[in-house]
Amino acid sequence: MSAFIEQLPKVELHLHIEGSLEPELVFALARRNGITLNYADESALRAAYDFDDLQSFLDIYYAGMSVLQTEQDFFDMTHAYLQRAHRENVRHTEIFFDPQAHTDRGVPFSVVITGIHRALEQARHDWGMSSRLIMSFLRHLPEASAIDTLRQAEPFHAWLTGVGLDSAERGNPPEKFRRAYALAREQGYRLVAHAGEEGPPQYIRDALELLGVERIDHGVAAIADDALMAELAERRVPLTVCPLSNLRLRVVNAMAEHPMQKLLQAGLCVTVNSDDPAYFGGYMNANYQALQDGLGMSDGELLRLAMNGVEACWLSPEEKTLLLHDIQAHGEKFGVRAFDG
Ligand SMILES: Nc1ncnc2[nH]cnc12
Ligand SMILES: [Zn+2]
């Protein structure tokens, strides 16, 4: 692992906290909660992480999170991710959780969010690590369920910054969630959505125009649409790209074919993120390293990707200035200038 990448101050903007659940913790929580799993041990579970596409991942992802039952379980999962991120010099993180995947199993919204929130506060206190929390609607479920989730979130509004949209993209276009997003906007939430992961470039346009999102999660399908690329570059719409996720879910056939470098060089505000690191073979450093190894991206390009993370995040302007300063100082220490077109 390159020292430049390890020491680079990083921002993570696309992380599903349930996707940080490592097999060891799945088994520990199963034991604690008296649950029998369909896998003999941790290595048998890890061996099942061989995906053909998004749906084959989602099936295992939703099964894995069934071990999460108590507030302490949600705390332990979130704490484990934050500890790992802190070790990798992630300074700020904006994390998703999937409330419907838990409330549909009978785990109350309050249990889920209280455990996650407590871990975020502890990381802020212990390590000065800042964070935002985004609740994500499952797009394979009806819009009415998303609207009901918004209602359940009302008592916890102060702990939530934004809403997102994830799960099976194809066949569940942004327009299905127009009303839910309009309500979320009225309630003061910031808006993002997964679009253009497996779905077409039109879903990226629709997420922007019909839902009014300010960031696109993934968005790599834009590479096939020159007019959309020009618009995203012109408006500096951030894309939270997840290289190892795209490789493991076969959005790309090889890292050498990943569009990240082309998107950056076309002037888009692309950022590096880990999506579901326990399932896709790596956290933030591994994603940066994969871009360097697979695409030959320079340290200057990686520096710009980290700066884009700051531009795209939801910290205050003052906090952003401080973090950008740290990233620039890191570049100077290594004699690296940020890629600039
Ligand atoms: N990469 C991804 N795409 C869609 N939904 C998800 N839920 C967790 N990870 C996801
Ligand atoms: Zn995602």
Question: Quick summary of this structure?
Answer:
This protein has 341 residues and is an alpha/beta fold. It is built from 17 helices and eight strands.
Query: Which strand order do you get reading across the main beta sheet?
Result: 1-2-3-4-5-6-7-8
* CATH architecture designation: Alpha-Beta Barrel
In CATH terms, the superfamily is: Metal-dependent hydrolases
Q: Which series of helices and strands comes N to C?
A: HEHHHHEHHEHEHEHEHEHHEHHHH
Portion in beta strands: 5-15%
Low-confidence stretches: none
Tell me the radius of gyration. Answer: 19 Å
Mean pLDDT: 98
Structural class: alpha/beta
Quote the distance from N terminus to C terminus: 26 Å
Oligomer: single chain
Number of helical regions? 17
The beta-strand count equals 8
Walk me through this protein's architecture.
With 341 residues, this protein is α/β, with parallel strands linked by helices. It has one domain (3-333): Alpha-Beta Barrel (TIM Barrel), CATH 3.20.20.140. The chain is 51% helix and 14% strand. The chain is built from 17 helices and 8 strands. The protein has helices at 3-7, 23-32, 42-47, 54-64, 71-87, 99-103, 109-127, 143-153, 178-186, 201-211, 226-235, 243-248, 260-265, 277-280, 284-295, 299-312, 317-333, and strands at residues 10-16, 90-97, 130-138, 162-166, 190-195, 215-218, 238-241, 269-272. Strands 1-2-3-4-5-6-7-8 form an 8-stranded parallel β-sheet. Strand 5 (190-195), helix 10 (201-211) and strand 6 (215-218) form a beta-alpha-beta unit. The radius of gyration is 19 Å and the shape is globular. Adenine (ADE) binds at residues 16, 19, 54, 61, 166-167, 194, 197, 245, 275-276. Catalyzes the hydrolytic deamination of adenine to hypoxanthine. Plays an important role in the purine salvage pathway and in nitrogen catabolism.
